[in-house]
Amino acid sequence: VQTIGILTSGGDAPGMNAALRAVARTAWARGIDVKGIYRGYSGLLNDEIFDMQKEFTCDIISRGGTALFTARCEEFKQLEYQEKAAEILRSHNIDGLVVIGGDGSFRGAQKLSAQGINTVALPGTIDLDIACTEYTIGFDTAVNTAMQAIDKIRDSSTSHERCSIIEVMGRNAGYIALWCGIASGAEDILIPERFDGNRPKLENELIESILEKKALGKKHHLIINAEGVGHSYGMAKRIEQATGVETRASILGHMQRGGNPTAKDRVYASYMGALAVDLLCSGATNRVVGYRNGQYIDYDIEDALGMAKDVDQYEFEIAQILGR
Ligand code: ADP
């Protein structure tokens, strides 16, 4: 490999900067040139490509977001744009590409690999919704950010003896909600993986749970709701009507995507970035880096996208026991 390109794609996640910094610095240490590509596949198609210098990687490890910006690019799903992108990469002599993003971005990486560009992807998403890995860049920071916000809402919720429904991110995955639920001592945790779509049933269960815990003398009732279950405001209204307990909903929103990455996100992202470069050096392509059983590993992208994972049932049951 002579020149490695780097892009960040899809939703941003704290730790992406640590990853791209590690990619660049490892490449330089191996005698490889580095080019930055702005705005994901969209920037790639617009030829927003620059020679990355050392300064670009300075003072970014501690920052959230991504210094390369990120974008979604619908047209990149079409073959003609994938061919065009490969041509643009070749015109810059980029013979290795590192893509940092989620499942959608991996599909793009796979398509570029099919166009003859050696490509390695890194799992960057706060949602932890990538099946081949137990760790994704940004999850740890997002959980800590949400937990701190929940702690604050909890204080106020206790003072007013309220019920609080706090909605956290995660798209169709409940990992952020499960972790926040345990870490914040929530009474109830709602995750899409354990929701059958029957909202009246879910609300009746919550109403029962609130009345039961109120009778036990609990001063507040904290419900962590995952984005994939949603409808927090409507739920709050109906719960208040049914229980007579003042109930408020807060949707934490984009604050969960930002902020300085935790040590874990910085360190794991750094190792993953370095590994991506070393995989490219060994001639690998169409790979995605993951972390499993205490080790950094890599998979064929097709295999990785074909994997499935689910919230651990034991963990979910314990979370419920601890909230009682
Ligand atoms: P994430 O990478 O976080 O999952 P998206 O699903 O939005 O985010 O995907 C990011 C980008 O990856 C998309 O905007 C698109 O450019 C590219 N992408 C997604 N799916 C495909 C696909 N099937 N083929 C090619 N590119 C894709």
UniProtKB/TrEMBL annotation:
UniProt binding sites for Mg(2+): D103
Highest taxon of the lineage: Bacteria
An annotated GO BP: fructose 1,6-bisphosphate metabolic process
Pathway participation: Carbohydrate degradation; glycolysis; D-glyceraldehyde 3-phosphate and glycerone phosphate from D-glucose: step 3/4
Notes on activation and inhibition: Allosterically activated by ADP and other diphosphonucleosides, and allosterically inhibited by phosphoenolpyruvate.
GO cellular component: 6-phosphofructokinase complex
Alphabetized PANTHER family for the sequence: ATP-DEPENDENT 6-PHOSPHOFRUCTOKINASE, PHOSPHOFRUCTOKINASE
NCBIfam families: PFKA_ATP, PRK03202.1
Name of the protein this chain belongs to: ATP-dependent 6-phosphofructokinase
Source organism of this protein record: Anaerobutyricum hallii
Record lineage: Bacteria, Bacillati, Bacillota, Clostridia, Lachnospirales
Gene that produces this protein: pfkA
